Structures are given as structure tokens and as C-alpha cells.
Amino acid sequence: AQSVTQLDSQVPVFEEAPVELRCNYSSSVSVYLFWYVQYPNQGLQLLLKYLSGSTLVKGINGFEAEFNKSQTSFHLRKPSVHISDTAEYFCAVTTDPIYNQGGKLIFGQGTELSVKP
Amino acid sequence: DGGITQSPKYLFRKEGQNVTLSCEQNLNHDAMYWYRQDPGQGLRLIYYSQIVNDFQKGDIAEGYSVSREKKESFPLTVTSAQKNPTAFYLCASSITWGGRNEQFFGPGTRLTVL
């Protein structure tokens, strides 16, 4: 079965600084990977996704992530954060439905990004 | 605008009562999902439906029930058998079930048991 680990539960950072939110996954088959953002008391919004092809994926709001198959990682980065980026970020993994337990989206525990002025 | 609506936004329940959370989508999606969110635990899948009149248990289905009589609607009932129902509940949908398809989320319902 697939699993996801977000290595940091909280990441404080100053405005305009770079940030990296770390995500590692476990799977014996090929995966699809997603990053979602959740603002307080709201639903989740897709930031970006990796399905196939280029390992560097660009998303909304200036975020990007790199799929590293050898390290089973999908870390999220932004070169310069804003106060408005303060939110919780979730990494998620799924596989093709043909595989055992495939099709279900498995979420990490979340990382709270706090951007300070 | 297409999207997913959930109601109510906040819900209070006395112990021993069943409550039903509403989820409606106008995206013409076949698949719908219910997740439970607790602090520090991410999202956990309660039930999912791949198509109308069909649904399957997710990872934490005990104490919950669903129906899918219409493509647009996927209500979740939290029964008195659910031992710890206080949580944030999120409904989602996707074009078809699983894999590479992006899931779109509603704004959530926060359930508190008094």
C-alpha cells in the first residue's frame, strides 16, 4: 500500500524568504503525486500535480515541486513567500486503479506554513 | 460557476443523535468522496462513490453511512455509532474514480458533538 510522510509539521519563515516543504512517499508501483493548499476553515485547492513527463512541475501562486524517483520525494518549493501563503499544505499520492489499493488518494499529515513579516 | 457546495458550514449535535451532511456538485463528475480531517492527521477517506447508485467503504467507514441516488448529490450521515464524530468533514469529486484525476473539494462542514 502507498503512504506519504510530510517531514515537517510546522515551518515558520520570514516574508520574501525561500521555503521548501518536504514530502516523501512509499509505493511499489508508479505513482501520481499532488500538492494541495488549505486556508483556515476552507476546503483544499490543488497547487500542482505530477502525472508523468518532466520531473519539475510548476503550479499556481509561484510554487513548484520536483519529483525524485530515486529518493521517493516530491518536495514543494517557492523562491519568495508572501504573508498570503500562510496556510496548511498537504502532499498526496495515488496509483492507477488497476493496482491493489490503487485509485485512492493518500494524504500526508500536513505542514503548516507560517509566513511572518 | 461550477463547484461543490456543502451545508451546513457548522453543525452541532447532541450525543446519540444522527446528523446528515449535505454535499452537492454541478461539475458533472461521476466520482464523489467524503473525508474526515482531524488536526495533525491529514485527511482520511470515509466513503467514496464511483458512479450513481454505487458506493464503497473507505478506511474509516464505521459509524457513517451514505447514499448516491443522484449524480449531483452524496449526503453523509453520521450515526450515533460513531464514537468520536467531532471533526471537519470534506466532500470532494472527480471526473472519474481515482488515479490521475484531480479531486475538487467543497468548503467543508465542521461538526461538533456537545
Percent strand of chain A: over 45%
The run of helices and strands of chain A is EEEEEEEEEEEE
User: Which residues of chain A form runs of ≥5 with pLDDT under 50?
Assistant: none
How many strands of chain B? 11
Report the average pLDDT across residues of chain B.
93
Helical run tally of chain B: 0
Considering DSSP H and I runs of 4 or more, what fraction of the residues of chain B is helical? Answer: under 10%
- Strand content range of chain B: over 45%
Counting helices, strands and paired strands, the structural category of chain B is mainly beta
Strands of chain A, total number: 12
Q: What is the global morphology of chain A?
A: globular
Poorly predicted regions of chain B: none
Largest sheet of chain A: 6 strands, mixed
User: Which pair of protein chains has the largest interface, and what are the residue counts?
Assistant: A-B, 26 and 25 residues
Give a brief outline of the structure.
The complex is a heterodimer of chains A (117) and B (114). Chain A is built from no helices and 12 strands.
Characterization of this structure:
- The complex is a heterodimer of chains A (117) and B (114).
- Chain A is mainly beta and 117 residues long.
- Chain A has strands at residues 3-6, 10-14, 19-21, 23-26, 32-38, 44-50, 56-58, 64-68, 73-78, 87-94, 106-107, 111-116.
- In chain A, the strands form 3 sheets. In chain A, strands 2, 5, 6, 10, 11 and 12 form a 6-stranded mixed sheet that branches. A 4-stranded antiparallel sheet of chain A has the order 3-9-8-7, with no helix packed on it.
- The radius of gyration of chain A is 14 Å and the shape is globular.
- Chain A starts with a strand and ends with a strand.
- Chain B is mostly beta strands.
- Chain B is built from no helices and 11 strands.
- Chain B has strands at residues 4-7, 10-13, 19-25, 31-37, 43-51, 54-57, 64-66, 76-78, 87-94, 104-105, 109-113.
- In chain B, the strands form 2 sheets. In chain B, strands 2, 4, 5, 6, 9, 10 and 11 form a 7-stranded mixed sheet that branches.
- In chain B, a hairpin with a 2-residue loop joins strand 5 (43-51) and strand 6 (54-57).
- The mean pLDDT of chain B is 93.
